[in-house]
Amino acid sequence: MHGSGTGSEPGPTGGPSGQTGVDHEFLALERELGVFLRRARASSGEMAREVHPDLEPAAYGLLARLEEAGRQRATELAGYFGVGKATMSRQLRALEDLGLVARDPDPADGRAWLVGLTEEGRARFIRVRDARRDTYVRKLAGWDRGEVAELARLLHQLNARAGEQ
Predict the structure, then answer these.
(1) C-alpha span between 9 and 25 (Å, rounded)
(2) Which of 40, 30, 61 is nearest to 158 (CA)?
(3) Cβ(62)–Cβ(77) under 8 Å?
């Protein structure tokens, strides 16, 4: 996977351009994460279209958050995703127009609204999410459960640290 005698392995100075061994490992990490992220973006687009043909790829993550965390205020969602209120409002309006989410008054504050998945939105999301999980199970069939758990743990650790910036 990583170099095979093609000049990408570290030499006496640590690598082709003088990187240290640590730099080589971080370069390999960056390369593999880049591949992973490109595939994840493409996959998100496919999953979004499976939920609804007019769903924007970025909105799939919003559906996932609502399914996981339940009804929330738009400001909470905007904070979670690190986007502005206007961007979140636009995305939620599009999801509402597609019948995937609904807004209801917040019982704790009559001036605020809670956004949640509609029955249709939940059913569509769960169908696609379950199909994606089945794909992971097939692709990782040769891994033992401990390896899968370790990958999940490491990705969680990476995500948690990325959020600390």
Answers:
(1) 10
(2) 30
(3) yes
Phi-psi region of 55 (alpha: psi -120 to 50; beta: other; left: phi over 0): beta
d(CA 47, CA 41): 10
pTM of the model: 0.74
- Distance spanning both ends of the chain, measured CA to CA: 31
Residue 76 contacts residue 33 (beta carbons within 8 Å):
no
Residue 142: both structure tokens together: 């040769």
88 vs 41: CA distance, rounded Å: 19
| pLDDT (tens place) for every residue of the chain, 165 residues total | 444 444 444 444 444 555 555 688 889 989 999 998 998 888 888 999 999 999 998 899 999 999 999 999 999 999 999 999 999 999 999 999 999 999 999 998 888 899 999 999 999 999 999 999 999 899 999 999 999 999 999 999 988 888 675
